[in-house]
Recover the amino acids of this structure.
């Protein structure tokens, strides 16, 4: 059957309809987005410019930083612009593109965080075999599989949603095109699609989260036999990673591991994995990581020394 589609654009309700509150949110989220861009670009610059950070751990961290830049850029600029716009609209194909790219970069981040947990496990539990386990070929393969897996997930997620007919309803009770708010507008039975969405998004989030928790449980048990001094750095690294994982995964599981029922809390919860987590990642990975902090100091001291030589 041909899909009936009378909708050419959608209208976002956004986080708030109050004009005064929208101006406040505009300033807050503009600041958040600037922090995200500056923080992650600084991490990428630091990793690429310092040969000491050309290791598997920082290879995946650079992937994560790039994903956070792209992931937040899918929703944040449009949301920020809508705070000062009278009409918060997005075209039908713009909505498809936003949903596809959002789930693509979001799922890639889920897979890379899981791979980073495996990297930590290999480094801590098998230090003598670490360079063999996490060789350049293996790292490239794991990163490639993460991107390809995310591409497959996003394609299926978007296809499931937009193969449905959309008749007249246009108002999306959200600030971006996500699956559950868009499915509410479809003029067809969405029961089967809802179940497939839960299987596609919800189970990926839950499954990867359980794998992460299992890997860190194994790491903690392996660290019990070590001295307090030798435990300090691994615990700091794992602690920062686990903080990121919890802030990112728990809201994702809350949103996607249930049928297409929306709550007023959903938009606020979505802010955590679309904006808060990408903003906190650079702070967590730099403030709790001595290697990155030292590399940044070397980068800045090198720049200042070059400026001093130019003045002379």
């Amino acid at each position: 059957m041909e899909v009936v589609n009378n909708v050419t654009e959608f209208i976002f309700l956004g986080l708030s309809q109050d004009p005064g509150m929208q101006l406040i949110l505009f300033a807050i989220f503009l600041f958040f987005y600037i922090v995200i861009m500056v923080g992650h670009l600084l991490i990428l610059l630091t990793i690429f410019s310092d040969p000491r950070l050309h290791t598997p751990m920082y290879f995946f961290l650079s992937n994560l930083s790039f994903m956070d830049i792209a992931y937040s850029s899918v929703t944040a600029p449009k949301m920020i612009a809508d705070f000062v716009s009278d009409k918060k609209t997005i075209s039908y194909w713009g909505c498809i593109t936003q949903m596809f790219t959002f789930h693509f970069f979001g799922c890639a981040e889920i897979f890379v965080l899981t791979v980073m947990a495996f990297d930590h496990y290999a480094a801590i539990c098998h230090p003598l075999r670490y360079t063999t386990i996490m060789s350049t070929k293996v790292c490239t393969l794991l990163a490639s599989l993460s991107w390809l897996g995310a591409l497959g997930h996003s394609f299926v997620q978007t296809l499931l949603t937009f193969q449905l007919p959309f008749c007249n309803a246009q108002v999306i009770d959200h600030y971006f095109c996500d699956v559950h708010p868009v499915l509410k507008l479809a003029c067809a039975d969405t029961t089967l699609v809802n179940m497939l969405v839960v299987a596609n998004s919800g189970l990926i989030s839950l499954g990867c989260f359980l794998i992460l928790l299992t890997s860190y449980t194994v790491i903690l048990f392996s660290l019990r036999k070590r001295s307090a001094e030798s435990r300090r750095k691994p615990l700091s690294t794992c602690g920062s990673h686990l903080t990121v994982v919890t802030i990112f995964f728990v809201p994702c599981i809350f949103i996607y591991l249930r049928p297409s029922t929306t709550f007023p809390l959903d938009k606020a919860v979505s802010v955590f994995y679309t904006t808060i987590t990408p903003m906190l990642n650079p702070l967590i990975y730099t403030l709790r990581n001595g290697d990155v902090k030292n590399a940044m100091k070397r980068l800045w001291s090198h720049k200042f020394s070059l400026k001093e030589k130019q003045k002379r």
Remarks:
- The chain has a mean pLDDT of 86.
- Residues 24 and 83 are 9 Å apart (CA to CA).
